[in-house]
Design a protein that fits this description.
Elements (H helix, E strand, L loop, with lengths): L51 H10 L2 E3 L5 E2 L7 E2 L11 H35 L16 H6 L10 H17 L9 H29 L11 E4 L10 E5 L3 H13 L7 E5 L1 H9 L4 E4 L4 H7 L4 E4 L8 H6 L4 E4 L16 H9 L5 E3 L3 H15 L15 H5 L7 H5 L6 H9 L4 H7 L9 H5 L6 H12 L5 E4 L7 H13 L5 E4 L10 H12 L3 E5 H8 L9 H4 L9 E5 L5 H14 L8 H11 L2 E5 L5 H12 L4 E3 L8 E3 L11 E3 L4 E3 L9 E3 L3 H10 L8 H19 L21 H10 L11 E2 L5
Parallel strand pairs: 5-6, 5-8, 6-7, 8-9, 9-10, 12-13, 12-15, 13-14, 15-16, 16-20
Antiparallel strand pairs: 1-17, 2-3, 4-11, 18-19, 18-21
Helix pairs in contact: 1-5, 2-4, 2-5, 2-24, 4-5, 5-24, 6-7, 6-11, 8-17, 10-11, 14-15, 15-17, 18-22, 19-20, 19-25, 22-23, 25-26
Length: 778
């Protein structure tokens, strides 16, 4: 039907009426379209089962390996049920129960990021309006690669992000319902659902970070972001100090705004721990980064913080109890963590300030970020002086006398997650030698979980011992960390996409996750340094990005000072906080789109298949501990990106391990010829837990090998693999015959010894597939 345009003047006698009431609804003037200029793929907004066939391809190649904590299921009132060689009362077996636990963990992690994103989105729409534009800068055209691929649309305003987040929340309901007793009963289907939860996590993180980038004008992928101050020694202890802990930037941003609006930069220190620290410095470089989550107990007990503002995720749940020991005030700012505090959100700020300053309440729950800004700063200013005499750490001279009470029962060592020599350090301290305590402090060798204190039969303040000794011997630790840059720019992908896919750049390695390191944060920095020297692209986020910054090399520089923050060979890019991990997956997706011209809209399988077989990327979560980390890993795994975990991560109960002894598992389809061809274990595993830093580094390099490597690229990757293996293990790798397709793949510097090794194993050359894929030819 067509309509003929008829112009009318209001004074024309063309319409007569009485008591006319007009209501103007939403008016859109020239709003850019969300639809993309490419055909829609087969799976926009995929349901729980739409990508099940892709998941099963991955799970056939990388079958789950389970490592249960125990053989019992205690989920319902039928139990508890012993599943060792038996079924439970509901019919579930041990494998399915472990897979259900993995799904639960992934759902919890995804819910944390989705809840964070929902908080952020509501706050930004309230403050800036639902039509606030999404502007990712002139060098980014593909502003939301995950949203484009999964949802099939281009977000134009912040309100457009609501559709993606609502979809995540809908899928979470379905996934969590599958965990109910009497629902899913197959381990592989639980695993497929866990991978779906991980993909939802990726989507939620992209929504959250894009929201905060555009709302708070954070960096948009610039490689030359400024260096920010990092370390316990960066804070001026003579000033009032506000400490922000968690992941939600909104309260911290309002605190910094209040400081700026009232010209208080010289009067108050604002600092942060965990991802909030990264994000407040992305917003305003005047803030200081104390460090990763392993710094929490140390810094709180040091008494430096006058006000502690907590938001959500990875905050010690006893933060209020610890703060009360030295008179610090706690302000909780989200519904995720209320801590039993009185809700003062609707009260006048002056009343809240007076109540806190006078000690009438231990802390306050304030759910309005702008109000938090004023209250936190003003309370810190008013109580800082009186807190100077308050302390919960012993004097350095008191430690030897208190340490003499140790009975040397050894339980502190037994319960320590890393079996640290705590008892030896305490007995040495009793004799006046505090250096062993200080050694536990440096590089977070002890990450102050406090389990030793809980177990000590003499109630010795062991964490306080370590904190005080470390503060005494390792004073004024100051480092530099590059501010989080956000997404990888399209222009960078155009430059490096080809070299990555062809193997000329040996790989992209992402150091992500928490600080539950087996031997302190120095290991992750040393791994990053080794890879940077070998021209890998190294990216980092969250606690890992902070730990990398706490290492100073032989030139007296941090790695951030020594290497540029670009996404290129030998570049060290701090991408940002936990939610910024989405940009790492996003970079791989952009390679498929920009370099290989793969359409994104609703085209998950083809994009993921391309990444698995052609993009040499690997994640390293050396200190992963949380459910969020589990969800992040599941997300990148579904995209075809492998991850290497630390030894503690076996406690996640499940790994995805390939079997090099089963050649049929590695068969590939050559889409150019239509033939099924012999493949190789590239990558060998999808999710692998290494025992040592050396094993992790060698495994990471090996897992950047891809079937699509050119001979030159394969030479480079094998050269790094052989060099590192010989450096740490003193011999050639035992599996080279699996990765040498023909003599052109062999590094020139190792040719003789490699050929001798191959000859002894009756190796025969083979042709590399032209277009490797797990999918069928269309």
């Amino acid at each position: 039907m067509t309509y003929k345009k008829m112009d009318k003047k209001l004074d024309d006698d063309f319409w007569k009426t009485k008591n006319l009431s007009l209501t103007i609804g939403e008016v859109s003037v020239g709003k850019p379209k969300q639809e993309l200029d490419e055909p829609m793929g087969p799976t926009p907004k995929p349901s729980v089962t739409d990508l099940r066939s892709w998941d099963f391809k991955l799970l056939k190649r990388y079958p789950p390996f389970y490592a249960p904590f125990c053989d019992m299921c205690c989920l319902c009132t039928y139990g508890k049920c012993d599943l060792l060689g038996k079924k439970g009362a509901c019919g579930i077996d041990a494998e399915a129960q472990q897979a259900r636990t993995v799904l639960l963990a992934s759902c919890i992690g995804t819910a944390a990021h989705a809840g964070h994103g929902r908080h952020m989105l509501h706050h930004v729409i309230k403050e800036k309006g639902k039509d606030f534009p999404i502007d990712m800068g002139k060098n980014i055209d593909i502003e939301a690669p995950i949203i484009r691929t999964i949802i099939g649309k281009k977000p134009v305003t912040v309100s457009d992000l609501d559709e993606s987040l609502s979809y995540v929340e809908e899928q979470l309901s379905h996934l969590l319902s599958a965990c109910h007793t009497g629902q899913e009963g197959n381990s592989l289907d639980f695993e497929s659902k866990a991978l779906h939860a991980g993909m939802m996590d990726d989507l939620a993180r992209e929504v959250a970070d894009i929201t905060q980038i555009v709302a708070y004008d954070m960096p948009r992928g610039d490689g030359d972001e400024p260096l920010v101050e990092l370390g316990l020694g960066t804070v001026d202890k003579d000033k009032p100090v506000v400490l922000c802990i968690g992941h939600n930037v909104a309260p911290g941003a309002e605190i910094l705004d209040y400081v700026e609006d009232n010209d208080l930069y010289e009067d108050v220190e604002i600092c942060g721990i965990c991802c909030t620290a990264i994000d407040i410095t992305r917003y305003n470089q005047a803030a200081k980064v104390i460090g990763p989550l392993s710094k929490q107990m140390k810094f709180i007990r040091s008494g430096v913080s006058d006000v502690i503002v907590v938001d959500e995720q990875c905050v010690r749940t006893d933060v209020l109890e610890e703060a009360k020991k030295n008179g610090a005030v706690v302000i909780a700012t989200t519904d995720k963590m209320c801590l039993g505090l009185l809700d003062m959100t609707k009260e006048d700020p002056e009343l809240i300030i007076n109540e806190l300053v006078n000690g009438n309440i231990d802390g306050a729950l304030i759910l309005e970020p702008k109000k938090v800004g004023k209250v936190a700063v003003e309370v810190a200013k008013k109580i800082a002086k009186r807190r100077e005499s308050l302390k919960c750490l012993p004097d350095i001279s008191e430690i030897p006398e208190i340490a003499k009470e140790c009975t040397e029962c050894g339980w502190c060592v037994r319960v320590c997650p890393n079996n640290r020599p705590i008892m030896d350090a305490v007995t040495a301290a009793a004799k006046g030698d505090l250096t062993k305590l200080a050694n536990l402090y440096e590089h977070d060798m002890c990450y102050t979980c406090g389990r030793c204190e809980e177990e000590c039969e003499r109630n010795l303040p062991l964490v306080s011992f370590i904190t005080k000794a470390g503060d005494h011997f390792v004073k004024n630790q100051k480092f530099k960390m590059r501010a989080g840059r956000g997404p990888v720019q399209d222009v960078e992908i155009r430059k490096v996409g080809g070299p990555i896919v062809l193997g000329d750049i040996p790989g992209v390695v992402a150091f992500v996750g928490c600080s539950n390191f087996p031997n302190g944060g120095i290991e992750i920095a040393k791994m990053a340094e080794e890879l940077l020297k070998r021209r890998y692209i190294v990216v980092a986020t969250g606690c890992s990005a902070m730990s990398i910054g706490e290492y100073i090399d032989e030139d007296g520089l941090t790695l951030y000072e020594k290497y540029e923050g670009i996404f290129d060979a030998s570049g060290l890019a701090n991408i940002g906080s936990c939610v910024s991990n989405a940009h790492i997956s996003g970079a791989c997706i952009k390679i498929a789109n920009i370099f290989a011209k793969k359409p994104l809209s609703g085209n998950f399988e083809e994009v993921a298949d391309y990444i698995l077989n052609r993009v040499g990327a690997c994640g390293v979560a050396w200190g992963a501990f949380s459910q969020k980390a589990a969800a992040i890993a599941a997300g990148v795994n579904r995209w075809g990106i492998p991850a290497v975990l630390g030894p503690h991560s076996s406690k996640y109960r499940r790994l995805y391990l390939g079997r090099i002894d089963k050649e049929e598992m590695w068969d590939l389809n050559d889409l150019r010829t239509g033939e099924t061809v012999k493949g190789e274990p590239a990558p060998e595993h999808l999710l692998y837990a290494a025992e040592t830093m050396e094993e992790a580094l060698v495994s990471t390099v090996k897992m950047c090998i891809r079937p699509n490597d050119t001979p030159k690229g394969r030479q480079l990757k094998l050269s790094n693999y052989i060099d590192l293996y010989k450096k740490y293990f003193g011999e050639l790798p035992s599996d080279l015959e699996l990765f040498v397709r023909n003599e052109r793949d062999i590094p020139i510097t190792h040719k003789k010894e490699v050929m001798d090794d191959l000859t002894s194993k009756n190796w025969t050359p083979r042709e590399a597939p032209k277009e490797p894929s797990l999918l069928e030819r269309k």
